[in-house]
Specification:
Distance between the termini: 78 Å
Radius of gyration: 33 Å
Largest sheet: 5 strands, mixed
Number of helices: 0
Order of helices and strands: EEEEEEEEEEEEEEEEE
Strand order of the largest sheet: 8-15-14-10-12
Structural class: mainly beta
Length: 202
């Protein structure tokens, strides 16, 4: 933090400074006494006082967050259907674990879906929505604030069955008691993604 300076008219006056429970003494030179304190690593305020004889001065010091140092990303749920959505939350801290200042910019990118390009923090976090595309498969969401970044996987699964395509092999079977054919049902959603795990009744 900046030096804490108190001014007197006389030189050689001993001044006692108290800040954060720590006391320091200094002697005035040309009417000023100066001392330096190490800033707290926690966000907040602290009262600093200076006393010389019967005179006293005080000031309130404010400690603000540092730049983004860590970013923790969560995606809930992590598995969504095509065109489904998930809540994406980025929690951003400085190097001492303080929430970063409100308005800190966080940029986002996604695979297999879309997210807003950027958003600003409030209370050390920001939430946006991931919107899945029309293709099923593996995806991800990435968030970045300054040097801090995180990535979380997202799985996009097919939607509800929409179409069944029947394939018979061979397509022609001899008329006999031993003639057989394989019947295959290909089940897809509205966007042509193969639907897995659905029961098919023939």
């Amino acid at each position: 933090i900046d030096d804490f300076v108190i001014t007197f008219f006389n030189s050689g006056t001993e001044v006692t400074f108290l800040f954060g429970g720590v006391s320091h003494s200094s002697t005035t030179v040309a009417g000023k006494a100066t001392t330096t304190y190490q800033a707290s690593n926690k966000v907040g305020t602290s009262l600093a006082t200076a006393t010389a004889g019967g005179a006293q001065g005080e000031t309130t010091l404010t400690f603000t967050p540092g730049p983004a140092a860590t970013l923790t990303l969560t995606v809930q749920p992590s598995t969504v259907p095509v065109l489904g959505s998930a809540a994406v939350t980025a929690v951003v801290k400085d190097q001492f674990g303080n929430d970063v200042a409100d308005g800190t910019s966080v940029t986002f990118s996604a695979i297999a879906g879309t997210v807003p390009a950027s958003a600003s923090t409030s209370g050390g976090q920001v939430q946006v929505n991931f919107l899945a595309g029309t293709s099923a498969g593996a995806g991800s969401v990435t968030a970045t604030a300054g040097v801090a970044t995180d990535l979380k996987p997202v799985t996009v699964v097919p939607g509800a069955p929409n179409k069944i395509e029947i394939v018979v092999t061979p397509s022609q079977v001899p008329a006999s008691a031993t003639g057989t054919a394989i019947v295959e049902a290909k089940v897809t959603d509205a966007f042509g993604n193969l639907v897995v795990g659905e029961r098919v009744d023939f």
